[in-house]
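Record now logged for everyone:
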Amino acid sequence: MKQDQRPNLVRTFGLLHGVCNICGQEAKLTEDHTPPKGWARPKQVELRHVVDKLGMEDGNRKRATRSQNGLKYRTLCGRCNNGLLGARYDPALITFANEVASTLQTTAVLSSLQWFSIQPQAVMRAVLGHMCAQGVGRYAKGPLTEAVRQYMLDESLPLPDGLSFYYWAYPFRHQVIIRDAVFTDFSDQGPVMFWLLKAYPLAFMLTWTPSPRLPFSLQTLDPLRSASFGDMASVPLYLSPLVPELWPEAPPDDYAVLYGPEAVTASSL
């Protein structure tokens, strides 16, 4: 019998009814799309656990999983998914990403430093919300669970203490979503837990350790952590030198990274 050569199709992960990963309430659950709809990205992607992706060169490739519409988890209630992310937070994130994409696609000669006007509190909440959606039954987030919940639900609050927000230009085709990973160097720095979202043209990293020592100078929204929700701010984005495509998934020799189960890459086909 001839083996079926069709690619495996990703099933939406999650129950029809359960605990929302953002607000913690029991409710009918809805699908989250990460990155959100409206963000320019490949329509068909190839999904791999990040460790499999990094091991592709050794010949031990696992069969990939493909999806027509990105990465999907059914983990958010309708209020959080549609009322907060879709209606309140995602528009600012999508605008930021698409303006960066438009800048990168221009034929004009670009300087290494570009400035963009964004709504920082909406952008931070959008990224944090989509990262919260990754993984079934993952409402608990350690000691910051309630702080993150309150931040997402109350637009008057600042970004929680202990949470830092980094971003950088990412002009590459691979999408990466990592939740609950830890990196450490082999000096005196302790472990740093991070969440990561990378999708052309931007990368975002949330760290759960105040002011970690990083091998690259990344842009950060931390100075805007107490801005009012409706405030706009002009933020820098360096187009060179670029952060390496596979950082932090493939760390320098003096770093080590440990991954949780919700570590996935997505490559356009």
User: Anything to note?
Assistant: The longest helix spans residues 78-105. The CA atoms of residues 31 and 74 lie 4 Å apart.
